[in-house]
## 1
Amino acid sequence: MNKKILVCIVGIITIIGIVAVILGGNEVKRSPDELVVAVGTHGGEPETGFDPILGWNYYGEPLIQSTLFKRDNQMNLNNDLATDYTINTDGLTYQVTIRDDVKFSDNSSLTAKDVAFTYNKLKEVGTSDMDLNSMNSSKAINDSVIEFKLNNPDSTFINKLCYIGIVPETKYNNQTYGKEPIGSGPYKLVQWDKGQQAIFKLNDNYYNKKPEFKKLTMIFLKDDAAFASAKKGEVDIAEVPLSFTKEEVNNMTMTILHSIDTRGISLPYIPDNGTKTSEGHPLGNNVTSDIAIRKALNYGISRQALIDGPLNGHGLKSFDGVPSTLPWYNPDATVEDGKIDEAKQILEDGGWKAGSDGIREKNGLKASFELYYPSNDQDRQTLAVSVSEEAKKLGVEIKPVGKSWDDIENFKNSQTVLWGFGGVDPTVISKLYSSKLIGHIYDNPSGYNNSRVDNYIQSAINNLDINKSYDDWRKVSWDGSAGISPKGDAVWLWLVAMDYSYFVDNSLNISIETVTLQPHGGDIFGNIYDWKRLRQS
């Protein structure tokens, strides 16, 4: 072949390659045993680092640390570090026996002292996300047995033994541990570029079934940035908002995971009479304290319209914040919603008459209030706007306001807020409705006070058998004549149980059949032990 022609051909091939890269065909090659995942829409990057005591991945797979027990997608309790446990007949003493062959990633042995230290430290300095108020103390009986002493029976305490990663007593420093964690989980952190990525490598000391993937890189990207990384072939998995579910990405499949993560709007239950919480925030709202407003919204707003619109058809209706996959779900708490005429009649009967501007009024007070949501959450923003449009049909004005959580803090007890909750521990019901917790951090933001509901909550907690306690938790929603659901006091406007959406590389099998229940914040890595690479991507 003529040398000049050969040079021209090579040049053309080079140009074609460059153009392909420019046009986005630059799929990034990775080793089959390496994973790159774009996370950020739900859980995201931990502000305080990878420290379980300061909140790292409650309700999710901590990756770096081990937990005593785990719950699977059928809510079964399975051993992790633990091999057995007992509960005294008075419900005040739990003893847990752990494995004797576990080492931390630095080769030191994990013993009962480390477990006791972790729980005591969490009770001392931990965040409000994990409630250990019922625990007095924990101590090591010997190297393999930990004793937990409770100050009162707590049927939910067994759940607290599922979600706290164990840290080493002698190596723990709450100022530095989050950046350089030592744990006994399947991975160890080897690099954290804050605001960008975290790189994990397989922990050779891990005692259980090891994941197939020796390296895991989390890239902290949200929304458009995560989608762009998927389009460029830079990641194996990209977590994206539900608004992206109709998009397509070459060599990737949109994967939908059902969750127990619910979205609901707190409706201040008492009028604004100048009262403030212990934190100094105003308490009460003169519009939402009227049960006609709360009932009309619960019956009139179409939850299916919210699912079909901003959520692209992905989600399930929620009427009390308890998804139907959980054992304390109460089907009797549901109502037929989207009943505009019925909702209007509720408002008319309650004295809320249509105003000249279309907004109802009662004694000179407009049916108008603000709805706060975190401005960095696209799914909540679209939900807030859609709820506002639905409420207009009833003559109720809801004004969506996007703010930071620091700003929302000032309004959470006097205006409505679009919240997210969801875990496999019914304690959250107490946090939302117990009168003892009004104004405490983010607990009971509505200021709800109902002795009947309080009694059900206390009865459920005092029950020594968690499975038998579920009946009382159900009665909080509706006992046949009262409760927090739309049929009762309509304390919240619960909307949907969210689905989570991910673009997953076609070379990757994330074992859908063993995916764990997706809590608030998600848990995409909950079954990483079962993931397989089918072929080179």
## 2
Amino acid sequence: MEVPTPARTANRPIAIAAPRAAHGTPRPTPPGSRRLGRALFGLGGLAVALVACGKAENTAAGPQREFPNALPEAPRALEVQAAPAWTSSHALAVDEDAVYVADEANGALVVLERDTLQPTRTVPVGQGPAQLAVGPDGTAWVSVRDSGTLVRVDAGADAPSRVIDLGGEPYGVALSRQADRVYVTDHAGGRVVTVDASSGQILEERSVGRLLRGLAVVTGANGEPALVVVQQAGPALYVPVGSNDGLPRTPTALALRHGLPSDLLFDPMRGERLGVSRAMAATAMPGDDGALIVHLETDTGTSEDELRAAAAPRFDAEPATDGYGSSQSGSGFDFGVRSRPVDAVVTRVDADGTVRQAAPALPVVAPSSGEPMTARVAQPSDVNHHPTMSLAFVTGEGSDNVLVLNTGSFDGDPMAHPVAEIAVGMAPRAVAFSPDGRFAYVLNGQSFTVGEIDLTPLLTMKAVEQHAVGGASDAGFGGGEAVFIDVPEGALPPERAAALPEAVATAFVRPVALRQDREAAYGVDPSPAAVRRGRRIFTYARNPGLSEAGQFACATCHPDGTEDGKVWFIKDGPRQTIALAGRLQDTAPFNWLGTKGELKHNMEQTIARMGGHGLDEAELADLEQFLLHGLRPPRNPNLVGDGLDPVQALGKQIFEDPEVGCMSCHIGEASTDGELHDVGSTTEVERLLRQQANEQGADLPPPGYFNTPSLRGLWYTAPYLHNGKADTLYDVLEQTAGTMGATSQLEDDEIDALVAYLLTL
């Protein structure tokens, strides 16, 4: 594969295949068109891409294409040394002879022989192992969530060699480049813990954020080590961990990307509406070039959607939507489609904190479906960089696939250059590579298997010849003779066309579709059959019964049964996502309006909002079983042993004081009375929306009334109130003083005590 060094070339046309006319003759090059700086192929996907990005039919887009779309730049061999595999946290690791798996469901570290993929060791490590890192000497370090421990397993050992009590809920684990330090994130407690790899001594504990996930060790701009730490709801954190010679060691926020390269063409304002959610993993880039972070971008809608809904008839579908996400794409193209509410993305952060984001670009589409390749991935769960090529692999837990992106492109933005999609087992959670880079291994979380992928087709991709893009063998790509052609005049508004980059001298490849070559079991799912089936429904986004156009599954907004921390704007007004894990049993009625007395009926309403065709009774029953019995809430870091500390105990007295009145609504173990109340949290626009809905026949509670939420898990479910207006419990008590209990007369220390107790529930 010849891949010339990228360099800008002024006014250089790019070869593309001309769209066929009615009788198969290539159309002439239109006058007054503009050259694109990326390779395009004919009958491409501009219109199809926009439809696929919107809330379209449940069927995949067909092969017919009417506009150009981009080819990705060719991947290249790395010119710098790849970061050691142990510097990034994953649930899977590989060395020369073995594959290591964190078997979360069975509480074990499982070691498989690479040649046969058969287990050779199963080491019990405790309840809920999350991730692992394997050092250069074969020592494995495993974070164990439910046990609150970090477990060391020496090379060849059949039992833990050391168990270190960290407390909290250990999640991500990575080693320093020299493998002399172990770094662990505490998902529940928001800490980063540093452990001496030799002695097992805890060297440092630092509170840095909340709901922490994966991490990667990078080299900072000053040459000192630092961590890129992922927060579930973003932003990511840059945490210096070296001596730094007196330089500040304060964690700093890393702003994650807002918008795909195609958004800059079709909807440049979309980035301002996007928020970060479901950030799960990070991996170190080769050399000292920063890190990659995988997450979702969410377009939840805005208050403008709420105002449009208030000004329009309730059942007019144009100004607002009963589903999730903003109402219209705002792109200036009237295709009658809605903006895609979620996108799986990778943010590239350089060592100095700069986010690499491409110039405006057309999407790369999957030849099999016509969808943008970046839209083929749901619920990204892991990202890992290839050891020898400029390739990043992203696992789609909700789409049973792996998306491969080129990190070595001219613009440096991997989201502009997807090169492959790999079909794997159910719910892939992690990806790792053989040291030579020839094979990739995938942990299929719901298949309980490890899949092996021969990467030879990716390592030997043939570059597209500049004058043979549309040859006879390319019938699936539109066909036609290769000609020099530019974007037709009028296909893009002038200001968008002017934003396209100049031509780039480089090589391009056609995206490919691969499959895992072999698969072997590492364990058995111990869950009851109904819970297993319900977990699959909860996770898999390509189920047309569950969601529209493969965009959503329950896990999209509820990773591990938690919440995305977002407020979604629907026709009834803003609604904060409610956490599920440990919060559903005995808390009927359900939803913020309390309109559903049974959980399965509430699930049906949610599925309708996601655009699904609907589940049958058996599927609903399985999903209900999983929601009630298959979700494990995070470990509460505010609980001290088996009891309460003095401040929390005082807060409990205040909570139970009849004159304060908290227990008049938050009753018993379920912590709810199941009744509706108006606590003054509703805006005037929301009241108007409710009034309009009832006037037009909806059977909703009176304006301002909402279901009493359970207080279980308050510590991890911010923001609060139905519309997310309260960022903290202090804000809740201030905004509802006099309407939700009599708290206005409490002293500051009493408020502190009450909040401290509420955080233990």
## 3
Amino acid sequence: MSAIVLLILGLGGMAAGYFLYSRFIATKIYRLDPDFKTPAHEYEDGVDFVPTNRFILWGHHFTSVAGAAPIVGPAIAVIWGWLPAFLWVVLGTIFFAGVHDFGAIWASVRNKAKSVGALTGDVVGKRARSIFMIVIFLVLLMVNAVFAVVIAGLMMNFSTAVVPVWGAILVALIIGQLIYRRILSLPVVSVLGVIALYVLIFIGPAVPVQMPAEVGALSGNAVWILILFGYAAIASLLPVWVLLQPRDYINGLQLFIGLIVLYGSILLLNPTLVAPAINPDVPAGTPSLIPLLFVTIACGAISGFHGLVSSGTTSKQLNKETDARFVGYFGAVGEGMLALAAILAATAGFATFADWQAMYTAFGQGGVNAFVEGGAYMIHNGLGLNEVTAATLLTVMAALFAGTTMDTGLRLQRYIFQEWGDIYNQPWMKKNAPATLLAVGSCLLLAFGAGGADGTGGMIIWPLFGTTNQLLAGLTLLVITVMLVRLRRPMWYTLVPLCFLLVMTIAALLIQLRAFFEQGNYFLLFLDIVVLVAAILVAMECASALKRSRAEMAEQQE
């Protein structure tokens, strides 16, 4: 089958979702009000609460939620065949991710930009909030610790990407000043920023930077992890307009250009999908398609981490409530487009079926490597671009998005500690510096405490990320559903996705529980039980709140 057919169907479906379905959700369900005073204006402080142009905010939101996950998940899941991955990405983007991300922004904006964890206390109850905050903390801990490992690995394996990745930070700092000081218009700054980024990408292969394999008692990989957390700590303390917004905005533009290059090479090359639609001969040890597909592909279909970004940083920068549709739903569409590109690169970016099989020898294989190798193959053969440069372009794309997610993730983790300081009346925890130190310290404790001198401890608990992340998405939808019931609005558009997610996630947790027990991995077994119990308790609390809200409505009608 031609990859072009899949490309047209996927992009067409997502476009219809944005122009038709999201408009219906905005007007009939969330009922956005252009005159509503958003928290960005009400609590403007120039640091976290900053009214922001919707295009710049979209860039921040999209690149923060994207990261490497919409590349890794789909590029692993095609081991079951391209059809299940394609359907879940397209339908998940339209009916799950868009509604979830859009709804989390709306819910937070309507409640003083509170995070979804803190919002749970107001909408559901204090017990649910306490449990929810633990789940959120675990997700952020996994994301920050693991994305540091992913970026460090890219820096070690692709030395040509080091200069473009770190040079992008300088470009972002300059762009931030040009926009904030109104020195140049946004279109001019956008063009100059993109040109600067691509100049760096072409410079990268000429100036490779290789970290030594050993630096004192630490590996080169561990040194990169320490550098990344040092950078992320500083970035999370800076006002959002200085680095976070411009970095994310310019990366968003860079991604779309990268997607145009990748999609353009597909149109010119017209490659064939060498992978089967349904793979009947999966490697030994590969788990069942259902329910594992729905937790293997999280970002790109629906992800609980998106709710944290939506209610953590995005809601504090929303200029008008009506911007939530463009920022939230179209942000999900952008990520769906990236996931679609990952599927195509991982299934049509190989010369033969045997080459594809050689990449997918076991479950968990593929990922970023399949995306980079497959994408570089198509760009080289479709556009004639040098393979090293093509691979550098895609590596930089993956590293920049992982980096922006890590920036935002650490800021969100700081917010969690500050909210705990508020909940438990600890004034020192509400200050930026101590909360940031706690956030970084917890990540480093996991990275080096569990992973030793190599700093890869985050990978130990990563097998639980998919289920914990999707659980968080389901619980976020529960909070939104309760709000809709209290406002006497249709709830089925959020209730159906959340029921599906909770069923699939709890089933996946139970399957993993058995696997961890059989493997004798009692640490992950314990964490799996904690997450499973948390899921059941919060679901029960939300069901109780939903029942109470419906009962109150019935009484009022009488």
## 4
Amino acid sequence: MITTLHIKNIGIIEEITIDLNKGLNVLTGETGAGKTLMIDALLVLSGGRFSKEMIRKGESNSFVEANIYLPEHPQAIDGNIIVSREINNMGRNLCKINGRMVTVNELKDFMANIIEIHGQNDNQALLDSQYHLAYLDGFIGEQLTGQKEYNACYDAYCKIEKQLKENYGDEKERERKLDLLRYQYEEIKEAKLKSDEEDELEAQRKIMLNSEKIAENLKQTDIQLGEHAIDSISASIRALEKIENLDAKYEKTTSDLKNIYYELQEISREISARRDEIDFNDEQRNQIEERLDIIHNLKRKYGNTIPEILAYKQELKEEINHIENLETYTNKLKEEKNQIVEKMQSLANQMHDIRIKKAGELSEKINKELEDLEMKNAKINVKVDKQETFSKNGIDTVTFYIKTNLGEDEKQLSKIASGGEISRTMLGIKTVLADTDKVPILIFDEIDTGISGKTANSVAQKLHQISDKHQILCISHLPNIAAVADENYFIGKTVTNDRTNTHIKKLNEDEILQEIARISSGEVNEITLKYAQELRNKKVS
């Protein structure tokens, strides 16, 4: 439910904040005080169209924000969702859901499942035939046997359809695809790649590019070791051998130095061998460069690393095998599809029969409600028609038709012209669907147009009835409706400095009686107050 609604700079509304409650909230007030602007603001908040003329004169922007308490909603934070929309006089929109910016279409889609507005300027789901199937199915509930099984079949059906469409087109296209795949596979295969060879080749190339420098320094090292270090250590060993028998420490030093001598000899031999390795010929250089070129070319085409290229090669092999055996694969898919279609058709026919039966029951229930609302000549007809193609809900299309007067042809619900007729028809439908309708907030404007007496009582009772399952906001001029409200609000206007401002007030019980008396006859006196008390005493509990 909406717990708080804040409106700023819309029409004559400068800035108001209203705290709403669950159940039936009725808004009454002076003519031209801004009651319809409240509905306009909620339409704007629901992603509806906005005219720059709606911005309060002299202001640059309009702003609407609502705190909506929906504890079970996945986007709720601590049970609350904050929705806002700001529009400036340049037409720029700023829409937010819980502080996150969204587009107007995203806002509209989000709010379509939360608020439904019934009145002369609305575009509610009940008038849109694409929602009618969902309303009928909601009314049927668990009696719509086969739906879950059908949905599973439909998902499998769509998956197979997608796979069949992705089967590379006609024969020529498949051959072209095969030629390309085979070329790519052979190109990688002929390269005979090894996972770690690129690093080895790059290391060799680095040495090759620096071979002169390496050779020169190895030569210098070899000379220094062979002609200086080793000879010097050899002379030192011979000198120490002459005294090693005089003291154990000299003997140890001699031994240590001999070990160093042998290690240096080994190092010198290794360096000499490496000098020989550095001597690359042109053929070796070309081989390394050519091999690296092949690897770099394959990386450019098929992957960033050799392991990626080899993985792609395996994918190519599998795809080639798939296409070469495509006829067998396709025939298998078609066989599976035929089996699923047969089962879907059976389930869809079963659902169609149930819908046909329940559509008649729904029509009867709604027409009974319309009679109570003094629309005795109005007849709703919920039509179920078969379509040729499968959809996620079966093979049915559902459309609500209505005939409002005797002798007229029935027409689609969306063709109703009168705002009052629309609202009362919607009220009748909502009364029947109250337990299954998942839209939590319903707003009624002009529902009392052209009605009084018994009809007014019926409308009031229906509103109070569906307010058990939904939060209702109703703009009304009827005392009968105001009398059954759970909460009453008065919308008035004041003029300050030649500017008209809207204000809103939640009424206490005494103020409610006075307001019922005022709207019942235009005067507040002992007689009208007594009448107001009688209406209030009859409030549906």
